[in-house]
Structure formats: C-alpha cells, structure tokens
Amino acid sequence: MPGISRREVLLGGAAALAAAATGAVAASRANAVDLTLRASMLRHSILPGTTTEGMMSFHADGPPPVLRLPQGKPFSIDVVNELEEATIVHWHGLRIANAMDGVPYLTQAPIAPGNSFRYTLAAPDAGTYWYHPHCNTLEQMARGLTGVLVVEDEEDPGFDRDLPLNIRDFRLGSDGQFIELFKPRNAARGGTLGTVGTVNWEVAPTYDLAAGSLVRLRLAVTDVTRVGTYDLEGGTALVIALDANPLAQPIAPKGIVMAPGQRADIALRVPDSAGDIVSLSLRTPQGPRLLARFRPLGASIRRRLDELKPLRPNPIPQADLANAETIDFIFGWSPGGDAPAPSICGTLGYTFWSINRVAGQSDIPGPGEPLAVLKQGRSYVLRLRNETPNDHPIHLHGMSFRLLRSDKRKVAPLVTDTALLLSKETMEVALVADNPGDWAFHCHVIEHQRTGLSGYLRVE
Ligand code: C2O
Ligand code: CU
Ligand code: CU
Question: Per its UniProt record, what InterPro entries does this chain match (predicted)?
Fold first, then answer.
C-alpha cells in the first residue's frame, strides 16, 4: 500500500477544496447575475390622499422596474421570493428556452417563499414586452406584479427618449384599499374591471418632454381584464410597432385597440410650444378618460419624425402555408363537472370556460394532456373559434404567430403573441413550431385563464 499519511490526505483534501473554491469563484463570475428582482409586499399611494395596503411589487417602494435586455445576448435575472406565498415569473412574448418560461409544473416548480430562481433569457426579438407571475396569477397581478420589459434594438433608431407606459387598473375602494379582486358572475362573462386607471402606478401623470424632441412611447396593457381603445391626441405621432413587431406601414395612434397583454410602440414628435399638451386617453362609455399628459419643455430642438431609422423586423420564421397543417381550437363554456384541483398556486374556485371542451386547471396547464402536439420545424395554421359572446385575448407562450384571416373583419398580417379574438369570431393564425417544449396557451383575461380557458401545446 502506498504510504499516504493522514497529513497528506488532509493536504490533498485542502488542495482539492481550494481548487474547488477557485473553480466556484470562476464559475460564479462567469455566471454573474445581471439583475435581481425581489417580489415583496409594500404599501404605496395609488389614489391621491390614500395609502394602499397589501400591494405587491418587484421594487421596495414603487412599481416593478422597467427591465432592459440586450437583443440576442443572454441576460440573467434572479427572482427572489420575499412573499408569503409561492410565485413564478413569466416573460410575456419572449421566444426563449422552455425551461426559462416560468409556468408552474410545466416548465419549473413554483418558487417557494424565501427561495429564488435564476432565469437566463436570450431574447431574439427587439421590442416592448412585459413580465408577470404565473402562480396565484390573478391576485399577484391585481396587487401590482406587472412590469414592462424592453428588448433593446441592436441598432438605435434615434429617439431622444424612451418612455415605457405601464397601463393598468387597480380595484380599490374610495379609501384606497383593495376591494374583492373579482366577482364570479363577471368571471363567467367579460371579467371584473378595476376601479382606478393608472399609468406607471399614477393616476393621470404628466411627463415633461423636451419640446420638438422624438420620444418612443411604449404602451403596455398589463391589466388583468380590460380590453380598451386608446387615443393619442396632439403632436405628430405614429404607431411603429404592435406587440413588439414593427409595422411595415406605421399608422395613426387613434382608436388603438389593446387587450390585456398587448403593446403598442408610438413615435411621438413632441410639439414645439409649451402650451401644446399631448394626451393619451382611453375610450369609455362616459367619454374619454385621461390616462397621461405629455408637456413640451424648453426651446424646441426641432427634430423630425423622418429622421428616425425604421425598426428592423424581428427574425420570426415565415410559416410555409402551402404545407401547413390546420389545428382547430374551440373556445367555449365549461362542460361543467369537476371543481378545479387545489394548487399551491391557488384557485379561483370556479370553472366556467374550456378549450376544445376541456376546462384547464387554474394556473396549471398540466398534468393533463397537451391540446395539440406539434412537430418541431413544421408550419401550422391554428384555427381559433370563439363560441362565446365575450372577447378573449388568446396568448401563446414561446412562439409568435401571424394573423391570416377572420370571418368577421379584415385583419392586418400582424405578428404577435397575443391576438384579440372577438365575440363569436373565427380567426386563423400561422406559425412555425420551432421552439421545443410545452407552451402555455390561454386567454389573457386572467379570470378566464384561471377558470378554464387555458391549456398548452407541445412542440417535439
Ligand atoms: Cu402573459 Cu401565460 O402569460
Ligand atoms: Cu406569455
Ligand atoms: Cu377570455
């Protein structure tokens, strides 16, 4: 037996430990986290003159921060759960690896209180996105956990300022406290609307913008329920992208319909004189509701909209329609029967809706069967049929699709991750199933999602 003393073993052990430590340091440097998000409770003033208790944010004393990711490069985010319940974070609209998609049991376990999870996101497409929990989703989003996420363009288009607008309601009473977050009878219809409209957690804020400058407004509707029509009045402005994808023909920012989960990028040329206020408003049955005002400040710097470089189209594969297989999806009432299964991610306690006659189980698209199995690399047409009298913004994770046609209206060939399916409408959309994994597929009216209108597609 070779003579190895106890001391040598110890030294060897120490050397091995030292080597391991060095390796660990090197590895942690290589894997340095770019950002830490802490989900926590807070109190904050939303309604002037009141303080709302029981809010949730990814920021210690204000709204969730705007995240800015580089296009095409990995970016890592540690989500630390400082709530007293499980959570999980989903990056809405990003075509990323399935394991990073943030859907409980489908892509990862929920993050328990006190635990954290590192997401590494390599976003292939530039544009405006958002992020939110996918566990106890209605409550966590309603209490504040919705933030804007920007994937920066590789080539800067030349704006003087970039201004994300996180548009959402809160359900507060006149004392500023949360009231019941939903009513079951509304969940079985269009959903329960909030009572206080906000932009970046403020009621009708005013933004000072350099007179004559070019500003990129990034509108993101992160509300749990509201399908709205928005108007930007004043200045010269064009909608340049919808749901992160540039428009070949920019359009006027009038009557922009946005459902929960949808976004619009507007290029605004701020007026030259201080008195010319630009306003963003929402159409309501009682008339326009002012959401935000933009006030020109200082001497005009006299920029022109045509100085902007056009946005580059995102590298989204084109479906091969000649060889595409069509898959039908029927959005309808619940076939009745089973109460939702209890879950660590909560349940609303009702089942009202279904996809292809199957009611999804609250937040958990599994452990049931996928609604469809798609072959990786193949093209598909999804025929989305809405049997119900309500509107449903239909959202697919992990892949973007192109709108082809509707039996109710002319649709522009937009590329999106969330399509508003109107009452009784049938719409066809096309995609290439290029991202392997199990991908959640659901309505983004969260009460609908959580009472049956959810499932998932498998790409293999
Ligand atoms: Cu915005 Cu399933 O998500
Ligand atoms: Cu999503
Ligand atoms: Cu719906």
Answer: Cu-oxidase-like_N, Cu-oxidase_C, Cu-oxidase_fam, Cu_oxidase_CS, Cu_oxidase_Cu_BS, Cupredoxin, TAT_signal
